[in-house]
Amino acid sequence: MAIERNYYTIDPEGKLECMKCHVPLIKGKAKFMYLDNGFPVELPVCPVCGFVYVPEELALGKVASVERALEDK
Amino acid sequence: MPEIQERGSTHVYKVNRISKEEMESMVARCVYEEPPFCNAACPLKLDTRAFLKAAAGGDFKKALQLYEKATPFPLILSMGCEAPCETACRLCERGDGIAVRAVEAAAARYGQASRLGSVFRTKKKKTVAVLGSGLFPLFLAGELEKKAYPTTVFCEQDDLEAFLHCETEFLDEEAFALELKRLKGKDIQFVFGCDPDEAFFARQREAFDVLCASETVAKKLFPSEEADPALMILASEKLVTGCGSGVMAAAFGAKKAALTVDRLAQNLDPRNMRGSEGAVESRLYTDLSEASALRRVPSEQGGYTPEQAAQEAARCIQCHCEECMKSCAYLKHYKKYPGLLSKEIYNNTQIIMGDHQLNKPMNACTLCGQCTAVCPNGFDMAHVCAVARRNMVSTDKMPLAPHEFALMDMLFSNGDAFLSRPQPGFETCRYVFFPGCQASAIAPETVKAAYLDLCSRLDGGVALMLGCCGAICDWAGRCEMQESTREFLLTELSRLGDPVIIAGCPSCRKELAESVGGEVVGIWDILERIGLPEGTKRINRPAALHDSCGARGDAHTQQAIRNLASRLGVRIVETKYSGDRSPCCGYGGLTAYANPEVAGEITRKALERTDAPYITYCMACRDRFAREGRESRHILELIYGTDAGAPPDISEKRYNRLNLKRELLREFWQEETAEMKLDYELTFTDEARSLMDSRMILTDDVIAVLNDYREHGEAVLDSETGLLIARRRLGNATFWVKFTEDQEQGYTVHGAYSHRMNVVRREG
Ligand code: SF4
Ligand code: SF4
Ligand code: SF4
Ligand SMILES: [Zn+2]
Fold first, then answer.
1. Max CA-CA distance within chain B?
2. How many CB atoms lie within 10 A of CB B359?
3. B758 interaction partners in chain A (CB closer than 8 Å)
4. Which tens digit of pLDDT belongs to each residue from B21-60?
5. For residue B91, what is the DSSP state?
6. Of B100, B287, B290, B316, which is best to mutate to test ligand 2, by the most ligand atoms within 8 angstroms of its C-beta?
């Protein structure tokens, strides 16, 4: 099996809770999609409802810079 | 109104080819790369400007190095040259041209010769012989040595001193001694006491790869042949030789001859690929207005002292054309002159695959046209950027992100906030007042007062149209949207009876005149005609008039505003950059959205002109200046005694437009429209407010997220901060809101952020 590459990994370490399902978020698989490009990542997700959380630092940092790079393609 | 869609893919392999000729003729307008006049006049192409700069700084070593690039014998040249550079110097138009020759002589004296051990250079394989003596053989041997050809001079003299004396009687003793030392330091072989007859020639022909000779020797050997003055070669190609007399003829002849030797040694045709040789015409422009030291530094007997030479060199104004870069903060930011920048931007549109690195610069120009007004050749950077944007949009390569907020704002202006009504009591009207979207957003009270005034003093009815003229999509390069805006406005205008448009903003006036046509005047024209309204207060103080980009080239509007300001009692402060030369406030061309950093630099640069408060006649300018903390008022605020106060944030700008529409509908047309009321309390921390403004997140976006949370309960609780975080995908972005929830007080928003990438769960 090929080793899967993740562009980014965040472990919530039990500090985040899903308000709807009342369970802690766990490290889970997610994907960023932009202009028909996809990037696998590991983010805090709710194991029950599947809510994917994108923290502010990630949105304004890595995500924003990848967006800019793709926009100028 | 149309929808704005994100482009589907980054894999679009489409370009609109731009004709090379079109691009080249545009680029050629910029004379930045043209040589300065002194350098253009020098057949040896001495980089006079750089040379004088080094000398002005007292760096004679560097100065001499530059000078030695032009000639192997600097003192001989400087003492004997006719100095065409001095007569070509731009300063001659105002006073004395730079005494280049005297500075050259000083550099040759005080600078150290650059290379001592030229013996250690790798030599070329082909060998060259120079027959005869005089300036041409001397310079030629020097040029060939510089090109690393093993060179042998055959002369009739008996020693080096006698050889150097030939044709150099103008040198004084000291100069002769210095040049003799220089000659001795060069890696040139000498064979003395030769008489170059035919037998001698035949022998050397076997021994050397290329043969050269003085004009005298050439005449003796081939009496019937003339040398070609461009190539310095006999028609039979047997001999490279000189022609003409004088130091410059010899020095320049030697340069051309050395190039011919170089080509022959490589078995190439000496006619081809010679590059530019000799003096050229320069199209350079230089602003002479600040040239001050116009008289030559007098020289002592025996030339300048180092100090005097430096002082004379410092008079050089370092001719450059930088008119546009002096005035435009955008060009300054990218540190590129328009000739180069526009070439790069054009090339950017022609990239089929790969990164479009010039997207940012092309979207940062305010399209203001100042450069065209200040450039001696009318270079039109705005045109370059506007065409490039349209090109990128039409090939689906333009990212939406830089312009999306502005475009959405425009849809809002012509959607929810749009209003078009004839004056109460009229079916159709003779006029329609079109204040412009920014006026309604920034100064709604002023719009209301102006409309009231126009209605009360003009006959035939004055309709009102609150909306956007289409400048936003024009600036964004979205032609289709521009066309649908035009149709939309035409329909609305025809409903009002195709009235004369009274624009409240010069950019709207221009845009509407170009798109919907018909008669479009400015409110300033009307006020000039009907006079100021009763009760207008006089303002007896000085203020600078900031001319709008929309009024560039429109002397009539510029004058009308000045007349109104004078009637108000304003003492107008004019600056170097007023009228057609006025800079942009930073709002134009959507720079404020696409590149807030550059927009800020542009605004501050515009404010640098004077410390006086500014009077503007575009509400966006008023807003930009006020945001930078400068006192600025729109002329209509002064006329109507209104004060728009502190600059609104992006959400307030939307609210102001909606609220103005609602108030006007109620007060003028007796129509009630319901105000959207939230059924919960919503407060923002100051930090959240300012973050939202800089991140271009609207209150409405936050409300949409919270409404979604209230409906579905989806959010995350961060136990470290105690904040709830909810999100919602709206259009092309996902918005996240950090907040606290309270039974009684509702919600307090602590922060917000967004991203454009969509995030989804992944199986496996
Ligand atoms: S003003 Fe600017 S655009 Fe015009 S020639 Fe000079 S450098 Fe080029
Ligand atoms: S002022 Fe200086 S750069 Fe300009 S033409 Fe004269 S010597 Fe050359
Ligand atoms: S911002 Fe204005 S002055 Fe500067 S390059 Fe663009 S159009 Fe020219
Ligand atoms: Zn959940």
1. 117
2. 25
3. 32-34
4. 888 888 899 999 999 999 999 999 999 999 999 999 999 9
5. G
6. B316
Residues B451 and B598 in one domain: yes
- Same domain for B625 and B653? yes
Nearest CA in chain B to A14: B719
Which chain B residues are Cβ-neighbours of A63 within 8 angstroms? Answer: 755, 757
B377-427, pLDDT tens digit by residue?
Answer: 999 999 999 999 998 998 888 999 999 999 999 999 999 999 999 999 999
Q: What is the ipTM of this complex?
A: 0.94
| A7 located within any domain | no
Q: Which two tokens stand for residue B43?
A: 């057949």
Which residues have any ligand 2 atom within 6 Å of their CB? B 36-38, 48-49, 52, 89-91, 98, 316-319
Tokens 């040259």 belong to B81
* DSSP 3-state percent helix, strand, coil across chain A (nearest 5): 20, 35, 45
> Residue B475 and residue B482: Cα distance in Å, rounded?
10
Residues of B with CB under 8 A from a CB of A: 6-11, 354-357, 359-360, 399, 401, 712-720, 724-725, 727, 734, 736, 738, 751, 753-764
Query: Which one of the ligands is nearest to B89 CA?
Result: 2
Q: How confident is the model at residue B19 (pLDDT cuts 50, 70, 90)?
A: confident
In a domain, B72, yes or no: no
Q: Cβ separation of A33 and B760 shorter than 8 Å?
A: yes
Does B384 share its domain with B366?
yes
pLDDT digits (tens, 9 = 90+) for B607-647: 999 999 999 999 999 999 999 999 999 999 999 999 989 99
The count of domains in chain B is 4
DSSP-derived pairing of the beta strands B716-718 and A16-18: antiparallel
Residue B207 and residue B185 in one domain: yes
Write out the residue range of the structural domain in which residue B700 sits.
682-755
- Domain with A30 in it: 17-71
